[in-house]
Design brief:
The chain has helices spanning 15-25, 38-50, 65-78, 102-128, 145-149, 162-184, 213-224, and strands at 6-9, 30-35, 55-59, 84-87, 134-138, 192-196, 235-237, 240-241. Helix 4 (102-128) runs parallel beside helix 6. The chain has an eight-stranded mixed β-sheet, with helices on both faces. It is globular and about 50 Å long. The chain has seven helices and eight strands. It is an alpha/beta fold.
Length: 244
C-alpha cells in the first residue's frame, strides 16, 4: 500500500498515452503504463523514469480480457485500489463511408468501445476502493453529433473516419450511462467519469499533424485530477464542455 495515487493509462507507450502518463507521474502519481507490446511499453517507461517519473510498464491489450485481469490482479495485490483509469488505447481504420463494412466497424469498436468496457469492468472494484476515483475516456471531437451534422471542419479526412467517429460517439454514450449508474449506487457515487477530447493532435493516428501531445493531454490530466465537486458524465476539451 502507498499514499501515492495510482493510475492506469492504456495505450501508454506512445503519443497521447505516453504524454498523459508523464504528466500524471509528474503530479505525484505512480502510473501503470499499459502497452500491447511489452518491449515498447518497457522502453517508454524507461524513458519516462529517466525524467524522474514513477512509471511501471505492464503488458495490457484491451482486446484480451486475460491481460486486463492480470493488471487488475497486480493492482489488487500491491495497492488494493486504483485511483485513476485513463482509457486511451484506440485505433483508426481509414475507410470511405461508401465502402464501409462491418469488418472495419468490428475492428474499430473492438478496441475503442469493447476494450474500454473490458477495462472498466475489471478495474471497477479497485476504483470503488479509492477515496477519489476518476475515469477518463479519451474520445474525439469528431464524435460530436451536433458539430458533425453542422459541418464542422475537424481537420484530417472527414470522408474516411466514419468507423472511428462512430466508435467514439458510442464511447461517449457509455460515459453518460456509467455516470448515471454510479450516481444511483451509493457505493460507486464517488467515482467520476468523463469523456475528454484532446483535439486534432500530432500522433500516429493523425500522421503527426496537429497540436502537440502536451497540449492534447492537458484535458485528460485535468479530468483525471478533478476535485470532489467536479463534473461527471460530461464531454470536455481544454476550453470546456463539448456539445454532444
Amino acid at each position: 500500500m502507498t499514499d501515492r495515487r495510482v493510475a492506469v493509462v492504456t495505450g501508454g507507450n506512445k503519443g497521447l498515452g505516453k504524454e498523459t502518463a508523464w504528466q500524471l507521474a509528474h503530479r505525484g502519481m505512480t502510473v501503470f503504463l499499459g502497452a500491447r507490446d511489452p518491449e515498447r511499453g518497457a522502453a517508454a517507461a524507461r524513458e519516462l523514469n529517466a525524467s524522474g517519473a514513477t512509471v511501471v510498464a505492464v503488458p495490457l491489450d484491451v482486446t484480451d480480457a486475460d491481460s486486463v485481469q492480470a493488471v487488475a490482479a497486480r493492482l489488487r495485490e500491491d495497492y488494493g485500489r486504483l485511483d485513476v483509469l485513463v482509457n486511451n488505447a484506440g485505433t483508426v481504420i481509414a475507410c470511405p463511408v461508401e465502402d464501409l463494412t462491418t469488418v472495419e466497424l468490428r475492428q474499430t469498436f473492438e478496441v475503442n468501445v469493447f476494450g474500454a468496457v473490458t477495462v472498466v469492468h475489471a478495474m471497477l472494484p479497485l476504483l470503488k476502493n479509492s477515496a477519489a476515483p476518476r475515469i477518463v475516456n479519451v474520445s474525439s471531437t469528431t464524435a460530436s453529433l451536433s458539430l458533425t451534422s453542422g459541418g464542422t471542419d475537424f481537420g484530417g479526412d472527414a470522408g474516411h473516419r466514419s468507423a472511428y467517429s462512430s466508435s467514439k460517439a458510442a464511447l461517449n454514450m457509455l460515459t453518460v450511462h456509467y455516470a448515471q449508474a454510479f450516481q444511483r449506487d451509493s457505493g460507486l457515487a464517488h467515482i467520476k467519469i468523463n469523456s475528454a477530447t484532446p483535439g486534432y493532435t500530432a500522433t500516429e493516428l493523425t500522421g503527426y499533424r496537429g497540436r502537440t501531445v502536451a497540449d492534447g493531454a492537458r484535458i485528460i490530466v485535468e479530468l483525471a485530477m478533478l476535485p470532489d465537486d467536479g463534473p461527471t458524465g460530461g464531454f470536455f476539451n481544454d476550453q470546456g464542455p463539448v456539445p454532444w
